[in-house]
Structure formats: C-alpha cells, structure tokens
Amino acid sequence: ATTIDITPERAQPQRAQPDSLDQCRRCELWRDATQAVPGIGPTKARIMLVGEQPGDQEDLQGLPFVGPAGAVLDRALAEAGVERGAVYLTNAVKHFKWELRGKRRLHKTPAQREVSACHVWLEQELAKVRPEVVVALGATALKSVLQDSGTTMGAVMDAPFQHQGRWVVAVYHPSFVLRARDEDSRRQAYEVIVAGLRAALRLLG
Ligand code: URA
C-alpha cells in the first residue's frame, strides 16, 4: 500500500507574503529602491513621527530623515524642544519611489495603492511602539495613519484629534518647507511644523 507522507512540516501552508520588510513584495517599489527603510527609535517612544517615504539619501543609507528634509525636521525638533532620539521616526511608505531627471533621482509621490500596500508595516510599528501621539508629516502620512484616502490636511491641521485611542497631530511635510515659493511661505510652513511638535509634547502632559 502507498503511504502518503503528510508530516506537519509539509502540511504547513506556504506563507503568502514574506514577513520581513526587506523582502516585501506587496507593491513594485522595491524594484528600483536600494533597500527598504524601516522606522527607528525607542520602542517605548511616546511620540511617533510619520513621514511619506524615504528620499535619495535615506534610500542609500537605510535610515529615515537623514537628507535635506531631515535637516529641516531636525531644526524644527530642536526648536520645539523635542529630542530626536526620544521619538520614533518612520514613513508611510518604506521604499523610495523616484524618477530619473538628468543624473538625479527625483522623488515621486507614492500612489494610494502603494500607501495601502505598505500600511501593514506602519500598523506593525504602531502596535510595537504604542505611541500616545502620532505626528503625521504631510498628506500621505495622514492618509495612512487614518487609513482614509479622503482626508485632507486642511480639514485637520488646526488642532490635535483622537483617532483609535491616540492623539494625531497633522503638520506640513518638511520638504514642503523646502519647496515653498518664497521666504514668507517657507517660514509659515516651518512654524506649523514647530507648533505641531510643541502640541505633541503638551499632549504628553
Ligand atoms: N521624506 C520623508 O517623508 N521621509 C524621509 O525619511 C525622508 C524624506
């Protein structure tokens, strides 16, 4: 008689998706990126900052907010009295999306399907860190944090609000400061970020 070998190991179904961020194939962005960029910070951080996606420098170094936008963020954190090492820093999308212009890799805004595909990693970070306050830097971060592609910055930027048991503060993305057309707009956008970071601190009591 033939015996059918169904040892428990063999009977295990194959995982549909690999578990490690670096192996993530939930969307196509991994193809053109150097590496996935995970969040960084203490697992007990009380504040989590969520950006959009890694930029050119972040893609190369494997760390969030180490390029020009990171420099703006550093300045704003210092001015608000928030220590960078005390917060958890991450992005809504973990792979760099870009297009070549001349010799430069220029940032491209991720599509909603890419933000949604990547949301599982942000959820994992939120579950691990359990921050009391999430600061969404820009519209992509906000949509991912709320899991609502319809929310606009204008609707929520004025005041912190509660979402799923934690505070959310929405501010401009630091690169919005860099792109602003004149000094006045740059200063205003920057001040919104500083004010949001101060509000996040105040919420901790
Ligand atoms: N912009 C982001 O949103 N995140 C980074 O890590 C760098 C630039």
Automatic annotation (TrEMBL):
Keyword DNA damage attached: yes
Alphabetized UniProt keyword annotations: 4Fe-4S, DNA damage, DNA repair, Hydrolase, Iron, Iron-sulfur, Metal-binding
Keyword Cytoplasm included in the entry's annotation: no
Gene Ontology process terms (BP): DNA repair
Domain Uracil-DNA glycosylase-like as annotated: residue spans: 38-198
GO molecular function terms attached to this record: 4 iron, 4 sulfur cluster binding; deaminated base DNA N-glycosylase activity; metal ion binding
Protein family per UniProt: Belongs to the uracil-DNA glycosylase (UDG) superfamily. Type 4 (UDGa) family.
Name under which the protein is recorded: Type-4 uracil-DNA glycosylase
